[in-house]
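haha ok so turns out i had the wrong file open the whole time. this is the CORRECT one, sorry everyone. sequence first:
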Amino acid sequence: MAAIEKETKENKEVTIEQLINYTRENQKNKAAATTGYSLGAFDGTLEVISKYFDQRLDSAKTDDEKKSYLNQQHRATIGHPEAVQEIKIIIKQQVEHMKLTETQYPSIYQNLIDALFHEIWGLGVVSVWLERHRNIGKCRVNGTEVRYKKIGEKHRMHEQYRSIKDVYRLIENLMRNDEAAVMSRDKQYAELRLYDGTRVVITQPTLTLLPTIVFRRNTVEHFTLKEQAKLETIDDKAAPIYRMIARCGSKCIISGEPGTGKSTILLSLFAETETDKITVSAENAPELGLKSRFPDRDITEFVGDDKTMVAVVFPRTLRQDPGQYIIGEVREVEASLYKEACANTTGFVGTTMHEKDSSNVPGTLARKEIRWVQGLNYQIALTDYANHIDFVLVMELDENQITLRNVEISEIVFDAITLTVTSRRIMWFDGQQWLFHHHIDNRLKNRMRRKNRESFEEGMKALEALSLKYPIPEEEKEVSLTWGGG
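then structure:
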């Protein structure tokens, strides 16, 4: 540092690297000078309050009382408002009783009670993202680093845990009630939900080098096409096309990379479906929250795992007389479930999957099922899926790294004579604007018209008008896969 100051005084050139190191060192020194004592005092108060909760647990008179304490603490961690308030009241009482109200606390928190709660039973510094940045949908904890991207900023790292022990404390709190069922020494991976629906994925050593926690939540206030147009996820002029797809019994796959808004667009399409139809939802983890989001609908939600999804869950869904199916995400085990759902209802069937290219979707589904069902022929599986998919909607994160956009709607067409699978775009975002093409296979059009004539005619009228005004270039209209035939 002295060397930098000396070079500056002598008007010698200072490198960028030297300047950055100098600034970092100065910031560390200032932080140590201004916060060292207060954080030390805070750590002492933190230890005192933590010991109180430990003693409360140890002194429980019965197993039921101990279980009640543990349940209260766990519910507070996942954000249940009543449990959070109960724990904060206890902390406040202890702070006042021990005359610790003047304790200085980390400036990222709103007050001392909040700071103690979040450091002991809450999410720690992740609470800043959870409570103050409701418009940011994803947050990652990687080791001690907390990363999320604020609108208009290029960098992603913001708050940071002070030690890796704090991260393991958070994992322990999240898993306190569910450890035996979800996570153990032999299984270093778990998925769960906070009270507000935020999805949490935990991965820890030895599966990963450092513990990682991914938090994801919906930032959309209303699951409607109007809201999606407002967010520029879809073209507002194309709303009748989406409504047609939802109401005319289409079989849809929403594809794209993780975090591109697939679940949001699926929920927005579902919102447009016929409200009087019985809906069956099937997921491997309860993420969509379909019934809680649409409480007036007749919805049965199934949750299955690799062993039960096809053998147990799907046969039970048929007993519900479903008119519509929503499958949270297609992995290997759900691939055949999606296909069977399409075959068993004339209503809307929707799901999501991780695939960036619409023309690859039937083949990707075929490969998923082959990995799950040994001995299945790939060509047969591919054509089977191509025959059951009507539309693929591709989602992407815009180059501004903020806007989630539906960049493509493609019809999947299978020709049984030539054994050709074609992905034909009816809508495409070229980076500047949405373009359209109104040609849809006659068999699909007839089926959609029979299902809901009014929505079909409204959607086709909009598609034809937009196709004339904003046509997709010929070379971008379709991609075909064929391996010969009669």
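The chain has three domains: 1-122, 125-217, 225-482.
again sry for the mixup
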